[in-house]
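Quick entry, no commentary yet.
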Amino acid sequence: MRTPHALIATTVSAAALAATVVAPAPAAAVDAAPAPGAYYVQSATTGLNAAAGSGAVEQHGPRGNEDHQQWNLRADGTLEIADSPGTCLGRTGDRAATVACASPDARWEIAPAGADRFTLTVPGTDRRFTVVPKPPGGGHPAPLAVGAGTGDLAAWYLTPVDPVTRPMPPQGQRTLDQVTFLTAHNAYANGADGGFAPPFVDLFPNQTRGIERQLADGVRGFMLDIHQTPDGAILCHNSCTLVRRPVALWVDLQRIVDFLRAHPDQFVTVFLEDYVDPGVLRAELDRVQGLPEVLYRPDRTGVRENGWPTLGQLTAAGQRLLIFTDHSRAADRAAGLTRDTYGVMYQREWTVENHWSMGPGVGASDWSCYSRWDDAGTPVPLTRTEPGFRPLFVMNHFRDAAVSSTAGTDNSKLADRARRFCLPAARKKPNYLAVDRYDLGSPAAAVADLNTYTYP
């Protein structure tokens, strides 16, 4: 699949679970400029970082300590490039630029703008550091400006390079958005359970172990591509044409439900890259025995108003399977049936997700961490949050093609990329670490590390 995804279930009433949902801990109140220190200057509109280069300042995909994106906030209100002492974020006319820190054009009045955001204003004026508005049909231009910016265009997060974290609560008290799960990209494309692609293409499976073995190994997120055939919703990569012995979606979902019934303290999420009609998907789910008893419905339990429930609450309710689709709600409305009516959640409404590829199957990788949904119409930045609600963060860490040697090397670096690149890029901890060949490079160790603390 281009990008895939799923998790959790139901035995008590939705009202009962909603009554027990707890709100996430609020961020610390912000009533003054942040203390001096190292920060990323991050757009509240796009989630991209201010980056210095050749005298200009542009918004780029977050790249950790690369690409001149770290800034040292000094006591005098200047922002110095961390790896270029004496050079600061400033302005030349109406353009954001790098200037000497001693220049008056490097000074800013930094003031809180609510929701952990700030404005950077030219002292004594109403001119602000701002993202340029989108042209019709396009995205926000990369160059940043100084002018009469308003609203989110002129709002910035100052995200600490070295954030303060808190110890993870005990198992049952952890909210869903505090936990990280090992996730198999194209979990069905394993060659052990059946065919998944045409000849030759199937020589490069994303995984090499079947779904039941993946569950036994600790995989708790499953990215599955489904295509419509006369036999229903079938798991194939790109197309089911010429695929030998492909597996139906209901078969793998039954394996997952059976596992959950045998392991009542476990949680699973399924992410569907979804190319089927809503009625076909509903019929496929109807074939899964025991699915209604374990299916978790965040849309019916007050999550958007109060935050995610704890794992203990979900266990007590028996709600331990969460299913997402990447399909469009608008398209389903046009078809006359929305998927959430039968318990499949629209992923864009409940999660954020970074771009799905780090590059080709061999060679250098791109660790920048920016939203997969960075389109001109309705972009969803990784930094998105709502009052009382924090979307789950799906962190993709794989390439265009699954080459085992490359996947093993990439997976060994997963914890480093999550900590230095993607966590600050999203201003939240990844909840799903999605990889190819989860059996190589110890990605489970990265999951274990992330599950020792909460952020922020």
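second:
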Amino acid sequence: MFESAPEFRTVADLVVERIAVHTDHLFGVGGANIEDLYDSLHRHPTLTGIIAKHEYGAATMADGYARATTRLGVVAATSGGGAMNLLAALAESFDSRVPVLALVGQPPTALEGRGAFQDTGGLPGRLDAARIFASVSRYCAKITRPQDICDELDHAIEVALSGGPAVLLLPKDIQAAPSAMPAEAKKAQPRIDRGGPVAAGSSGSPLLPHWDPTPPSGRGRGAPSIAESPPENGFAARQLGGGSALPRGVLETLAEVPAGAPVAIIAGPEVGTADARVELAAVARALEAAVLVTPDAKDAFPNRDPRFAGVVGVMGHPHAPELVAEVQLCLLVGTPLPLTARAGLDTALAACPRVVHLGAEQPFVPVHAEARGPLATLLNELAALASGVAGKARHRSVSAATVDEEPVPISTAAPGSIGARSDRGVLPELMAPPASGPGVRYRPAVAALEAALEPGTDVIADAGNTGAAVVHYLRVPEDGRFLIALGMGGMGYSFGAGIGCALGRGRRAMVVAGDGAYFMHGHEVHTAVEYQVPVTFVVFNNNAHAMCVTREQVFYSGEYSFNRFRAAEIGAGVAAMFPGLPTWTARTLTEFEHALEKARATPGPAFIELRCDPDEIPPFAPFLKEPVA
């Protein structure tokens, strides 16, 4: 129940109470047309409100919270400019399928079309908020009657959790109206939205409108079939069908894999959003597979596991195409392989005799077979088949100890083959040309960062050269999370996302960004200071939009630059703004290591400025002449 409850429950009370089932934080910026919601939030005993400096920052906090916890991220903003400021962040959540619910205030319904301040009701001459937000959400609805709130809110939450975001537009008079909640809330009815048909009570990914359990035709792959005398193989020994969560086409393709053949897995961000890391590890061990990850899924598989084979794509490791080309089976798990993850792999995937996709989205590459559905369920089924557990899928709550048990080898790689990484040593890296400018280089800086990260620390990287270096060089700590916005690639994402991540996980987060990202949305540092959130902000300051500088040099004459700036003393400025915030400026590697050690002992937020070279070329394949990953 609410503390200091009013005489009657309002729609805003009901909204707050219901979202508290799915989250313990609400992020946002206040305003006249959302203040009733904040009044209800103030009286709720368990839901904590976090006020950001900008609605973009608030929405990225909700995004980071959702990615790190697999729970619902919630953001609330007022009408007009406040609402419009959400769009860039919601676009990222849309493209990356992050479960975010946006609650957006609107002017009172009686004033729409009558000169209301911030009117976006869609009447002649007015913006239409419903149409605008529909373009960056899986579901958007405007509440015009108090009695509709139960069904609409339940449905919006369901859609968001199936791969959001979802948006509810809440006019001020509707928020303040008495709630018309029945004794028992109605169950959400099946509907078709941009996320696909979602059944009432469903908790898995929606079935996409184009879903088909058989391999798509006309995509460069022949339909697989079982030979009359297939190679001896653990998969072929299993029954094909029998209520399996895996479609027959997938089972038939797996049945063709010769015994002892090498296998590779390319894991993507859906592994994290589906909370399927344990299940992925079980499949990798059962198949003795080498595991590659996409740049936005570095935490999908333990980076220090002998089977970890590095990163694919534009920031990836140069051996990845060769590895994929040599295997007999490549499993694409939780990634459709967009260009940032696929660069350099098209030829290798075409050479691979069996490519199977498991995940919610249509893959961007030709595959022999695919399966849609809850990813953890699909992986459990695959692990059970590969481990020889006929007719039984492992329990969803399988422990890490169970995963580490020696599996029954079924169609696994022979010792010393490409599937076994223990004899390969350190992963090969992209070779960037040496830099001669001022400051600390990317490679040693990231090595110092990694050395300072304790197990369980979460890392949030921003866009640009700094992000490329972190993706390529950094190993994610054990039990840590890794977040990066590669859907829209917006600069400044990491500052809000790091705060949401730290609050959601209840542990320290490390934000790594460039000075360009800091000047866009870095003043969310104020939010971390205000709420004493345990985030260490590391800003690589080269006084430039360095990736743009690199592009000017590599792809154009390099004789000009629009992207170099006068020197800014970011560390000194932050220290002056926030006298109680531990702040350091590092000009050498030794100073950086010292600052990281001091920051690690700080209970609340900390800030480190690291001086670096704007002309250093990062490990980003399009900028280099060698073969790309």
